[in-house]
Design brief:
Blueprint (H helix, E strand, L loop, with lengths): L1 H15 L6 E3 L6 H8 L3 H8 L11 E3 L5 E4 L6 H7 L4 H8 L11 E4 L5 E2 L2 E2 L2 H15 L4 H16 L7 H5 L2 E2 L2 E2 L2 H5 L8 H11 L10 E4 L5 H4 L3 E5 L2 E4 L3
Amino acid sequence: MQYRLLLLFIVFFLSISPAWAASYTVLPGDSLYKIGEKFGTTVQAIQEANGLKTTVIYPGQILTIPDGANLYTVKPGDSLYKIARRYGLSYQELMRFNGLSSERIYPGQVLRIPPAPQTVSRGGLSRSDFDLLARLIRAEAESEPHIAKVGVGAVILNRVKDSRFPNTIPGVIYQVVNGYYQFEPVANGWINRPASPDSVRAAEEALGGWDPTKGALYFYGSGATNWFVRSLPVACVLGGLTFCYAR
């Protein structure tokens, strides 16, 4: 009996230990946003736990990962499908989050439930919103330096937070004023091209809190002729893009 209990404990511990890791070694291609999603915590929480002042990380770096998940104790009659549906998840997502290799669970087992998706101020953040943000960044700043790409993402998020603009990422990007789209790639179709790895990284860093524009709400390229945007107070120039504040 004692042997069976010991074996059960070992199997249970091994099944959840990857999800409970207290530290994480950064891999090539990682970002704080990706790591936060993987472990169910936020970019800000990881920064605070590691004393990071920026979102810049490097392969081989060891990070302390704070646990941002909720816990659920499996009850008789439960299944991964039922538990996942209760929290608005897929059972595959629940398996990945807990490091499970099979769908088998048992009463008394403790599962970690991913926290609700991070929000962007007045609007919710979904995978489609993230993809749309990354696609706009590529369309507006594909040939620009990385900091300018992040700046474009920051402008979108700053608008979401500002009551003068729509309160969601799609609402901001597809906004029409006086019969004109606010962003040219929406009008010319470039918004429909897939996101590039650089634009995805820039979107992640903007969502992680990096705003190199320091609160700008507008930007324009060197060839812009719009008198309104060119009359706005300049916040900074990043690459070939000029970022501006509202009046």
